[in-house]
Amino acid sequence: MIRVLLVDDQPLIRSGFRALLDLEDDIEVVAEAADGEEGLVLAKEHLPDVALIDIQMPVMDGIEATRRIAADPDLAGVHVVMLTNYGMDEYVFEALRAGAAGFLVKDIVPEDLLHAVQVAARGDALLAPSITRKLIHRYVAQPPPASSAALEGLTSREREAVALAAQGLSNGQIADHMVISPMTAKTHINRAMTKLHARDRAQLVVLAYESGLAAPRNG
Asked: Where's the Response regulatory domain (predicted)?
């Protein structure tokens, strides 16, 4: 059973998402919160597998709530997925840096919402949508100073796997590109996460862009 926490200051959004998720036999909405502070309290109380958190909220916004969840060892099993609108791209990369596993646009279709919750619960990153490429392109146009020293411990194959993951490729797609098995691709990614002390795949991707290992595609 996948346990989900909903954090959004709009009751209609919460009730709509709950109605969809409660229809699934393997998903349970364990709690709802109207702001990040309340969401943090409920995350500690219920220890959900997935927390769907709005970016902009009163009292404590979603990015700060995500940052605190990511920093709390007791909440290591909570995978945060940010909820955003199309016009808020500038916040999404900051959310990934804070520790979010990915993000969803609020007008997502029901099938994609269910899939996203399942993907996040497995610990995978939600980095495929085209909006991600746009925000990364905008972010790295003038990136903050970053050192590639942290990547020196990676093997050449691990570097290649991380760079491909940063472009949104799944382990299977990475395996096809590198002509290796999906299990070997997963091993490369997991070892890179361990060496770089990345909380999850999303933070690994952030590191790849900040260090210059990965660069945005045009278009």
From this structure: 3-121
